[in-house]
Amino acid sequence: MCKVTWCNKKALKYLNGNPKAYCSDHIQYKQYASNAPTRPWLMYKVEKILANNLVCEHCGLDMIKQYGEENFKSIITAMDVDHIDPSIKGTPEGEQPNNYQLLCKMCHVIKSHKEGDFIAKKYR
């Protein structure tokens, strides 16, 4: 099966002689998210980027309308994928699109601060 946690498609067996762990849809995203196997939410971000849907899911800021496409890499960097329920982060149910939201940096910082994410886990 594809390594993308919400994909139920069969993984490609080989591509250019190398074994692969992604389906035919998600293998193309690998170039954008090379460390996605350890950070599955990156595939969610890539899906949003490729759909040209870079809108903060909290405040509604449309990064493309606001900043244009002249510095697309900066726009992408200014967006974070947030786990809506951080308590299930890293679990199969926590690594699903319904637990992700694309946020602008400001909304992500504020949400993370409210949740105490800035405090080391051993001190929470």
Structure write-up:
The chain has 124 residues and is α+β, with helices and mostly antiparallel strands. The chain has a domain at 38-123. The chain contains 4 helices and 4 strands, in the order ββαααββα. It has helices at 41-50, 63-67, 72-77, 105-115; strands spanning 14-15, 18-19, 79-83, 100-104. The strands form 2 sheets. It has a two-stranded antiparallel sheet with strand order 1-2. Strands 3-4 form a two-stranded antiparallel sheet. The mean pLDDT is 84.
Could you tell me the mean pLDDT?
A: 84
Helical content band: 25-40%
Terminal CA distance reads: 36 Å
Q: Count helical runs.
A: 4
- Taken in chain order, the helices and strands follow as EEHHHEEH
Strand content: 5-15%
Widest β-sheet, arrangement of strands: 1-2
From the alpha-carbon coordinates, what is the Rg to the nearest angstrom? 16 Å
- SS-based class: alpha+beta
Contiguous runs where pLDDT drops below 50 for at least 5 residues: none
Global geometry: globular
The count of β-strands is 4
Largest sheet: 2 strands, antiparallel
